[in-house]
Design a protein that fits this description.
The structure is a homotrimer of 118-residue chains. Chain A has 118 residues and is an alpha+beta fold. Helices cover 23% and strands 31% of the residues of chain A. Chains in contact: A-B, A-C, B-C.
Chain lengths: 118, 118, 118
């Protein structure tokens, strides 16, 4: 069995799970009291932070699955996203509307390549 | 090409697909005539059963993506989940509300590490 | 770090991302002016086309995650799907209702095994 690396201190879930060179994690905005644009910006910044934490980079993103509370806000998402996503190294992306928790405007599931520990 | 192992007898889908040490499968409650708490309990028990079947364990779960028919029932989910999820070895988890089939209160997509056949 | 192969020319996303023998991509119908049955047929045909493009095959599909704009159309999906999915080599499948873009009746996230470049 290959080793599994888990980050985070919650009993309920791991913040990040890494297995066979692939990291998986979920992000919602740390501060949900703000509007959609701010929540999207926070989530993308949190992705950057997690990538640094696991020794990966924005160029190594494989897949981002996005849930918006209101799909009408996809133009806001695209606006913030387009200035964030690395040219020539974009992940695949899917974005649909789903029911999210109170105050939550956006939730993302991220899959990224990471170097394996030697 | 690495080998792909498929379990199940349906024409429409495989019950489990295993590739490169990663198993993927979907669970809904076998008995959907019961309430949400019972359906959630069934799904988690079915995950346990599948883990045994594929030679994996609850400590090897990587990711669980949850759809609830009604996100208001997340407190019921958390209650059942918290006594099920293995301390220190939790998968990542995402839970949103989506439209599910008639009578279905919860659906989960599971990703788990499995030992490779030697 | 293992190599990552990306297909497509969009700044916003990659059409396909391949890493460690696993390809990930998203399909919506190229022509959304048509009805659900036609959109589903298009998406499955587009999957076939992408499989050829990446040197994989329908027998190598691992997981297909389906979003329908209206879950009442799952019978149409099943009808088209059943004559498309390869007997004995089906992927796992999950299908829920979510809010999709204007005119879009179906969206699929595909995971497939691919031979690694030598």
């Amino acid at each position: 069995m290959d080793s599994i690396r888990r980050l985070g201190n919650s009993h309920r879930w791991s913040d990040v799970v890494i297995h066979r060179g692939v990291a998986r994690w979920v992000e919602v905005a740390a501060d949900m009291s703000v509007d959609s644009r701010s929540q999207i910006g926070q989530v993308l910044q949190q992705i950057d932070d997690t990538l640094v934490q696991i020794g990966s980079s924005k160029q190594d993103l494989l897949q981002i699955q996005i849930y918006l509370a209101d799909l009408a806000e996809i133009s806001i998402l695209n606006d913030v996203w387009d200035s964030w996503v690395p040219a020539g190294h974009a992940p695949i992306r899917v974005c649909v509307q789903a029911g999210l928790g109170t105050g939550c405007r956006v939730e993302m599931i991220i899959t990224a390549a990471v170097p394996e520990e030697s």
